[in-house]
Amino acid sequence: MEERNRTRLTWSLGALIAAGVLAGVVGLVEVAGGFDTAATHPFPQPATWLVHRTMIDSVKWRAQSVSPPPKFTEPQVMAGFRDYDADCAMCHGAPGVGRQPWVAGMDPPPPYLLDAANRWRPEELYFIVSEGVKMTGMPAWRKALPKDEIWNIVAFLEAMPRTTAADYARLRATYGPGAPIFTQPPKGPPAFSPAGSELNQGAVPGVAAQTAPPARSRPAPGAP
Amino acid sequence: MALAAVALAGCNERAKTEVHTGGDPGRGSLLVDEEACGSCHVIPDKAQGNGLVGPPLAGIARRAVIAGLLPNTPDNMTRWLQSPQSVVPGNAMPNMGLTQQQARDITAYLYTLD
Fold first, then answer.
1. Do B48 and A52 lie within an 8 Å CB cutoff?
2. What pTM was computed for the model?
3. Which ipTM score applies to this complex?
4. Which CATH number belongs to the domain containing residue A126 in this structure?
């Protein structure tokens, strides 16, 4: 009995020391600036795969708590288009529409979402848009958009595989790029609008930039 | 010996692509990551190359035509990559604002895919 207690103590102590050493090494590497956070030096291929796989499994598991989606209506899809065009297309593109040039400088690169609805269930899309994705630049949109707006975006994502580039251009011609984000004024002030009404005026940075004269060496994406 | 031969053949293949296209396949590979081509195309060896919007890019060097329209030459591939919308207006692949050199680098990379 004595003997067994002693072995257990030795093991616990060993584990504790090992953990301490590991933490120390990680700490040293970190303090010495050993971990490269530059977006220009992506993770090696296997690490990229692992991180992405982790995101997929995490979303699939946690989206189980999202209640099933409403049956989407045509007006919801249209409202979703306006939100998507104003808030999402700058990073994720759209049928026939490229992303803003600076997006190529992001790591991980935001994917095009033309067939996102074929990979994710609507609840999972809702979860991703609503909660965001850590360390990727994908924001948790529930900080800025009410729930029904997020469902509208999901409604449009569901429609995107059936949306041609010509359809998308027609939608833009009808509603105009930079259409106001909110189809209805949100209840209460949006959390991310320091100036108060910026979001309500359709003054969306990425979208405004599309109509401004090109000041970059690369042509604005989406322009034929 | 056999391995060395294979490695040599690989080097030759790569050198050939560079001369052929005026592009650098290494830089092209990085650009393919940055531009998220993999979210629309299945691309061999790319962690996120599983998109099913456009055709798979494996064996693209051996394909006769690009987008069912242009003969598959390095110049035409560069032109396609720079401006898919002017080649096939209204197709889903966007103009991505690539420079000529970037398009050449990507062409060089694409021609290394089996």
1. yes
2. 0.79
3. 0.84
4. 1.10.760.10
